[in-house]
Write a structure and sequence with these properties.
By secondary structure, the chain is α/β, with parallel strands linked by helices. It has 22 helices and 27 strands. Strand 3, helix 2 and strand 4 form a beta-alpha-beta unit.
């Protein structure tokens, strides 16, 4: 087996420019680089897209979306939220009017039942998983729903190993069992929900026996989960990308939310819904308005009164229609209606599904500026590269976790070389384009955000420090709200109860990329504990756990193909092919393979995945590609 070493990315310390697309970068002064950016954006004002950063601060994301809307006059702003949890935001918003998880991390320590659905939290969210372990030690029963018997599932009372893409049938079968055994919370349903009768009809065909045939989960296990969840005084339902990264990700989320509405497992301490975010500020980026359909504070930009408030605060006119999301911006690159992109701290050249297509589309742009801390594969495609600060150590600000907790970030070290603060860079470009923004510091940006977002108004920097973080909503500078959302649904007074939560009427829709004789293996992707996303930040650091990229196969499939651990094979999908060493994994069932996106410079897994997108959220189906495994010819040994 060839020894594969992860690429080590060196830190950007000076601006870089190209004099022509086919020429190498050269070092430039800040003035030259910023002037080039201003000219490139100016000539593409009507065809612009902003990629904001889920690892940068709230303050940076606030200024980034303001730049798009005020300086460039567009709502085309998005981030890697689209790649992962946009279906969570869409599903939660449709049900409750708010796109955040409903509970705090602490509550999972004091709940009775924990359902980890499509989430290997022990590897992907290890800090959150410590709270899960405390809950188990306090007596909670945990159920793991996942195609793989993951490290998380090892801690579960029951593992429900479903077939990839059958989450909706499983959820419907759980619901039908709850209804037929009289465990539905009828009082809550009548008081706080709508659409129940239609939902009952929807799930009625999904008997335990039918669900077993479709999902592969034994009927007894489905029944046990249904009874445990419905009978629990308090239950937490958590999910990750195993639910969202599907062509029907929003429908998957709605199917899980339905279970909470059916049983009243929401709106109370210890009972709720928790989408686990994989990066430090995925939640915050959306909260700050770095998405195409919401202004800061998750306020709908189609609301004229909301728009007027922001127009007055920003002295601008906001276009009264939603912008393009990340997926739509890539499609617009193909059509030529997006010709310039300002990419901050994202690496879509390696993180997008069907990565070869993503690179080709970015090469078609008239102008690409990348602002980052490393010369990523995306930065290598740029016309101008701007060196920025590392958000976790070289800047002040805030970030927002999966539990909606806003926390302070404090500068610890100076950035290297000529690297500058993200916000300062954007303000310099804005000034060149006619907008003279002056922010004394990150707190000044935060205070501007507080003035336009009621959910954040009560969070001064002093209060954030005093309480070691505060969850939104926090409309008052004097009080704190409960740690859980939607307690209003339990109010007896209809006026206080507000808008009821609708059941989602969602149908089973199998994966787009079907397996067949030519592509008989189902590939699903995910994360490992030792590495982070596309490996740009983690690849340069050694880990005793890291073994590089492999294609994981079940023992049965390894025997069928006649391959052993470490042997390199060709892995092919309908979009591309890679060569990867084999790892035999007993946690996999026959017909299922697993890979990660952590080592794209050595094994570009996303050249295999399919860009079949959720029509509501735009998230691609990373979790369900059809592949084949082929042995490589034995090399001839020359003596």
């Amino acid at each position: 087996m060839r020894k594969r070493q992860p690429k080590i990315y060196t830190r950007l310390t000076h601006p870089l420019v190209r004099d022509a697309r086919d020429e190498p970068f050269r070092r430039a002064s800040w003035d030259e680089a910023l002037d080039r950016v201003a000219r490139g954006l100016q000539r593409n004002r009507d065809a612009f897209g902003m990629f904001a950063c889920a690892r940068a601060t709230n303050e940076m994301n606030y200024v980034a979306q303001k730049f798009a809307r005020v300086v460039m006059g567009t709502n085309n702003v998005d981030s890697c939220n689209r790649t992962c949890h946009a279906p969570s935001v869409a599903g939660l918003s449709a049900a409750f009017g708010s796109g955040g998880g409903t509970s705090s991390y602490e509550e999972i320590e004091h709940t009775d039942v924990i359902v980890m659905w499509g989430s290997n939290a022990r590897f992907a969210h290890p800090i959150f998983f410590q709270h899960v372990l405390k809950g188990i030690r306090n007596g909670a029963r945990m159920y793991a729903v996942d195609p793989r018997r993951t490290s998380t599932a090892e801690w579960a009372e029951s593992w429900l190993g479903l077939n990839v893409g059958t989450d909706i049938p499983l959820a419907h079968a759980v619901a039908r069992e709850i209804i037929h055994t009289g465990l539905a919370n009828e009082a809550f349903i009548e008081r706080a929900t709508t659409g129940y009768e239609e939902y009952k009809k929807l799930v009625e065909p999904w008997t335990l026996s039918l669900a077993e045939k479709v999902t592969g989960v034994p009927a007894r296990a489905i029944k046990d989960l249904a009874h445990a969840y419905a009978r629990a005084e308090r239950a937490q339902l958590c999910w990750t990308l195993g639910i969202t990264e599907h062509h029907n990700g929003t429908d998957n989320v709605r199917a899980l939310i339905n279970l909470s509405l059916l049983t009243g497992q929401v709106g109370r301490y210890g009972a709720g819904l928790q989408p686990l975010r994989g990066q430090n500020n995925v939640q915050g980026g959306g909260d700050m308005g770095a998405i195409p359909n919401r202004l800061p504070g998750f306020q709908d930009l189609l609301d004229p009164d909301i728009r007027l408030k922001f127009e007055s605060a920003w002295d601008t006119v906001i276009r009264p229609h939603y912008g393009l999301n990340l997926t739509e911006m890539f499609e617009a690159m193909e059509e030529g209606s997006v010709r310039a992109v300002y990419c901050i701290g994202e690496n879509p050249a390696q993180s997008e599904a069907d990565s070869d297509q993503a690179v080709r589309r970015m090469r078609q742009l008239d102008f690409l500026v990348v602002q980052d801390i490393f010369l990523t594969k995306t930065a290598e495609l740029a016309d101008v590269v701007l060196p920025a600060t590392a958000g976790w150590a070289e800047t002040d600000g805030t970030t927002t976790s999966s539990e909606r907790r806003v926390q302070r970030v404090r500068k610890a070290v100076d950035p290297p070389g000529e690297a500058r603060e993200d916000i300062d860079i954007m303000c310099e470009i804005a000034a060149r384009l006619g907008h003279d923004w002056k922010y004394a510091d990150a707190e000044a940006v935060w205070n501007e955000l507080r003035s336009v977002s009621p959910d954040h108004y009560g969070m001064t920097y002093d209060r954030l420090a005093e309480h070691q973080g505060i969850q939104w909503p926090c409309p008052s500078t004097e009080e704190l709200e409960p740690t859980y959302l939607h307690g209003r649904l339990w109010e007896k007074d209809p006026q206080r109860r507000g808008r009821p939560a609708p059941f989602g009427i969602v149908q089973h829709d199998p994966p787009v990329d079907l397996t067949d004789e030519e592509y008989p293996i189902r590939l699903t992707t995910g994360r490992r504990l030792d590495s982070y996303n596309t490996g740009v930040q983690s690849g340069g650091f050694a880990s005793p756990l890291r073994r590089g990229e492999h294609v994981e196969l079940s023992p049965e499939d390894a025997e069928r193909y006649g391959v052993v651990v470490g042997e390199e094979v060709q892995v092919s999908s309908r979009r591309g092919a890679v060569v990867a060493p084999v790892w035999v994994e007993p946690a996999l069932r026959p017909g299922l393979a697993f890979m990660t996106m952590h080592f794209p410079d050595e094994v570009d897994t996303n050249s295999l995945t399919i860009e079949a997108n959720c029509p509501i959220a735009g998230t691609a189906e990373f979790k369900a590609s059809a592949i084949r495994i082929e042995k490589l010819p034995v090399a001839t040994i020359v003596r």
